[in-house]
Structure formats: structure tokens, C-alpha cells
Design brief:
40% helix; 20% strand
Length: 522
């Protein structure tokens, strides 16, 4: 079967890259997906051959002829697009780190002091926003993570000049001359669609492939499309490409059906280029929304109300480069807090913003964990004994969906039964299958996980199914008896800067090892 999967993967690549026979490619790919090793083979063959084809056929830097790209994306949009993006990453851009694993010996108590890195979610919005200025910007406290490096590649491809070193980035947008970033870069991260409103403001045209990123469930962009249309843009999504054009963006009222972070960011980025005033109603209130607003204001934009339900933006103003410092990472802070609690540790996290962590701190206190904080640090102390609690994910200031998986991991050893309700992403519970392999007692009914506490978890081989699930697996390994091997390290490094090194500095026993091929637990 595995050999058949490899053969079909090669056949699909030939159809995809060489002949662009879309009906045949679709049939072959569907068959490929049915074989146990089909996806792995697809990643290796399609990833390598696609890259070679691109280099050979497009020396100018363009990925593929426009007609061919749109045809291939139509196939991708039909057949498991998120899984496909992840597999392409494994075979191409993230190939090196996806072929690594973490080996963790559980039982070590975390103790000491650690500094939190800059915010991933803020960085992926602020970096592309710098393209709206007419002079260079300098952004510091950036996390040195895969998503930031992908953005660097993407912006350079568009024509920007960038220098990124020691967590500081210099961006000169004056040479940007393209409005259609390539699929092979866009597919590697969700936030790539933040480029659409920016390029629309610069060129009155944008062709951005549908975003990739972790497979955590449906993440529709209908609210973003609604916002761009409200400002006067003509938007189409045929062939898996967000194709937008406009003669002039004009400020208007934007009514979001739900407080979507992505739609709020895209509305803000489009509104600063629109003439007149834009009001974004039912806006998201997350810390990185406020951070983006502060950056835009430092560039000369007029943004009011960020952090509330209504954001008002006076658009059409001259924007200049700025020097800016990224806000600390709310989710990394929370992950370190949970890791400290899980290991009966005593950890001080510096450079944090305690007010951003109030929902998590409240849950940890409810579980019996001691949490203290001052202006820019948080101390977490635990005896390793936890009470069961109920958790429901919500938009900020509610409990963040990105911390649901790490906290659910600790609840597997809490006394009693915990109820965790996921209201944001329906596939956030996929990681529970991995926890079951470690001895967890969990079951899922629709969007709710019922977690019965067990005495302990046991180390085994598991896999990171997405970014935050990877962090959850690390925490589970720190708690477990024995050795745990975690595959899919690339997912973790997408959003956490040197997480393994930081935990090792606190006393964890972690080794990163290279493997010939990431094991599959499907």
C-alpha cells in the first residue's frame, strides 16, 4: 500500500506540475489520500518536485503561469486543503524541522526565571502593515519563529527590502512592486491573508491565495470579504485565490457577524487606506488588535477604540515608517504558566503583561495553583495537585482558544471530571487522541470534551497535530512518567521561540533529535 501511495504521489506531481490536467490530477490525488502512506509520499515527492519545477521554469521568481496556478488551486480547494498545506510544508519549507523530534524525560520540576518573547499574533499583523508606509520601519522584540521567517520571504518576494537579526527587523517598503504573492509561501501560514487589504490599498489590486496554517478546523474568510466589499472592493475567490480590485477604497460602516480577529485585522488594514471614516462594529478585542492599532497610529494613522467593540479609523492619511516594540506574547506566557503548574514548579515569567492573563490566572487559581503578579512579571507555584474545573473558550477577555489545549492537558490529572467547551475551532480536540495514548481518560461529544482525571500520564510516542497541540504535547511529556517522543516539531517552532531551550533552562530534560522520517500515528 505504501508503495502505491508513493507511486500515486509521483503521478499527481506530474499532473500538477507538468501537464496541469486538472481532472486527472484530482482523481490521482484522491486515490493518493486513501493510502496510509500517501500523504507522506505526497509531501516528499510533490514538495521536492514542485520546488524544482518552479526554479527551472520560473527564473524570474514567479511560481507558475497564472492559469496553471489557478487550476491547481481549484484542486487544492476541493481536496483537504488544510491537510494538503501541512503536508506540503512537511516536504518543502519545513522539511528540516519536521524531520526532528523532541525526546522528553518527564518528572522534572520547572523552577527559575524566564523571559517571554514578543507576540506571534501581533508580529504577523504588524510586519506586513509596515508595507503601507512610504519610508522604512524598525520593529523590535519580534519572536524568532518560523511564521516570521515565512513573512520575511513573502515580503522580499513582493519587493520589500528587509534585514532581520537579533529579534529586530528593518523593513523598507518603497521597492514593493507585486500584488500577487506565490501559493508556496502563502500556504505556509494563516496570517498571509493580511496581505490582501494592504496590497489592495497600495495597488488597488490584490491576488492572494487562500491562507494555509494549522488544520484546527474551518476558518472561513467570509467576514473579511464582507469588510472589503463594504469599503467598495470587488472581491472574488475563484480558483482558491482571493482576487480583489477597487478604484478607490471609501470608508464605511463594517458590521462583523462575530468578533473575528482576522476580519478585524483585515478591516483595520483596509480602512487606513480608505478615504473618510470607517467604523468596525463587533470588533475583536485581543491584545494584538490593540498592538496593531498602536503601530498604525505610530505610522500616522488615526485609530480609536481598539480594545472595545467599535474601532473608528480616519483613513487616507499619509503613513510614514516608525520604530515600534512588539507586545509580549500572551499565548507563550500562558503556556509557560501552565507548564510551571503542571510540573509542580515555581517559575517567574518576566516581560509579561498580567492583565492579558486574567482569564487563565483565574482558572489556575480555581484549580489550586498559586499565581502572583506585579507590573511585568507573573509567578506560578504549584504542588502538582489540581481540582477539576470547567472551561469555555471565548474571544478576549474570555478564555483563549489557543490555551485550551495546554490547559486541557493538565486537567487529565486533576481530581474529578472537567468539562471543556470549544466554541472557536471545531478541530481543536484532535490532540486528545494523542493524550489517550498516554493514558488520559477523555471523550468528546460535539464541541465538548469530558476529561476524567487519572493518576498520571505515561510517556510514549506522540505527534503534534498543530501549533498549540504541540505545546500541549510538550506539557503532557513534562508531566508523564518515563520518556515521551514528540514528532511534528515544525508545528511548535511555527509559533514558539526556542520553547525547548527555555524549558530546559528551567530544569526540563529535553533533547531535540533528527529523525529520518517523522513517524505517523494516523
Amino acid at each position: 500500500m505504501a508503495g502505491s501511495g508513493a507511486y500515486l504521489a509521483r503521478k499527481w506531481t506530474n499532473c500538477r506540475c507538468m501537464n496541469m490536467n486538472v481532472p486527472i490530477a484530482a482523481i490521482v490525488l484522491k486515490k493518493c489520500w486513501e493510502f496510509p502512506n500517501g500523504r507522506t509520499s505526497f509531501a516528499k515527492n510533490a514538495g521536492a518536485r514542485f520546488g524544482a519545477y518552479t526554479r527551472a521554469r520560473a527564473p524570474s521568481g514567479r511560481s507558475l503561469p497564472r492559469r496553471a496556478v489557478k487550476a491547481a488551486r481549484a484542486v487544492a480547494a476541493e481536496i483537504a486543503p488544510a491537510a494538503m498545506a501541512a503536508d506540503i510544508d512537511a516536504g518543502r519549507g519545513l522539511g528540516a524541522i519536521m524531520k526532528e523530534k523532541l525526546k522528553i524525560l518527564g518528572g522534572a520540576r520547572l523552577e527559575g526565571e524566564i523571559a517571554v518573547s514578543g507576540g506571534k499574533n501581533a508580529a504577523v499583523a504588524i510586519i506586513p502593515a509596515a508595507l503601507l508606509a512610504d519610508s522604512p520601519s524598525v520593529i523590535d522584540n519580534l519572536p524568532d519563529i518560523e511564521d516570521v521567517h515565512v513573512l520575511v520571504e513573502m515580503l522580499r518576494w513582493l519587493g520589500a527590502k528587509i534585514d532581520f537579526r537579533e529579534n529586530t527587523m528593518w523593513i523598507d517598503p518603497r521597492t514593493v512592486d507585486k500584488y500577487d504573492p506565490p501559493y508556496e509561501l502563502v500556504s505556509r501560514m494563516r496570517a498571509s491573508y493580511y496581505l490582501a487589504p494592504i496590497l489592495l490599498g497600495l495597488f488597488h489590486r490584490a491576488e492572494v491565495p487562500m491562507p494555509g496554517g494549522c488544520d484546527i478546523g474551518a476558518r472561513p474568510i467570509d467576514q473579511t470579504l464582507k469588510a472589503l466589499r463594504a469599503l467598495g472592493a470587488q472581491v472574488d475567490t475563484l480558483g482558491g485565490v482571493l482576487d480583489a480590485k477597487v478604484e478607490e477604497l471609501i470608508g464605511s460602516d463594517i458590521f462583523l457577524d462575530m468578533p473575528s480577529v482576522g476580519a478585524t485585522v483585515n478591516s483595520m488594514l483596509a480602512a487606513v487606506s480608505a478615504s473618510g471614516t470607517t467604523c468596525i462594529h463587533n470588533a475583536a478585542k485581543e491584545p494584538h488588535i490593540v498592538d496593531l492599532a498602536n503601530f498604525l497610529s505610530s505610522m500616522g494613522a488615526m485609530v480609536k477604540g481598539a480594545g472595545t467593540d467599535v474601532i473608528r479609523i480616519r483613513g487616507g492619511r499619509h503613513l510614514h515608517g516608525a520604530n515600534y516594540t512588539i507586545v509580549p506574547d500572551q499565548i507563550e506566557t500562558g503556556t509557560l504558566m501552565i507548564a510551571a503548574a503542571a510540573t509542580a514548579g515555581d517559575v517567574v515569567i518576566t516581560g509579561a503583561i498580567p492583565t492579558h492573563m486574567e482569564s487563565l490566572s483565574a482558572k489556575l487559581l480555581e484549580m489550586g495553583v498559586n499565581v502572583q503578579c506585579e507590573d511585568d512579571w507573573i509567578r506560578v507555584r504549584s504542588n502538582g495537585v489540581f481540582r477539576a474545573v470547567n472551561v469555555k473558550t471565548q474571544g478576549y477577555p474570555g478564555f483563549p482558544t489557543d490555551l485550551q489545549q495546554p490547559l486541557s492537558t493538565v486537567l487529565t490529572v486533576a481530581n474529578g471530571t472537567s468539562i471543556v467547551t470549544e466554541t472557536i475551532f471545531e478541530s481543536r480536540f484532535r490532540f486528545l487522541d494523542e493524550l489517550r495514548r498516554m493514558g488520559a481518560n477523555v471523550r468528546v461529544i460535539e464541541n465538548t470534551a469530558i476529561i476524567g482525571g487519572v493518576d498520571h500520564l505515561v510517556g510514549t510516542r506522540v505527534n503534534a497535530t498543530d501549533l498549540r497541540a504541540g505545546a500541549a504535547m510538550v506539557i503532557a511529556a513534562l508531566m508523564a512518567r518515563g520518556v515521551t517522543e514528540i514528532g511534528g516539531v515544525g508545528y511548535i517552532l511555527r509559533g514558539y521561540e526556542r520553547l525547548d531551550e527555555k524549558l530546559t533552562a528551567l530544569g526540563a530534560n529535553i533533547q531535540r533529535e533528527r529523525i529520518e522520517e517523522a513517524h505517523s500515528l494516523a
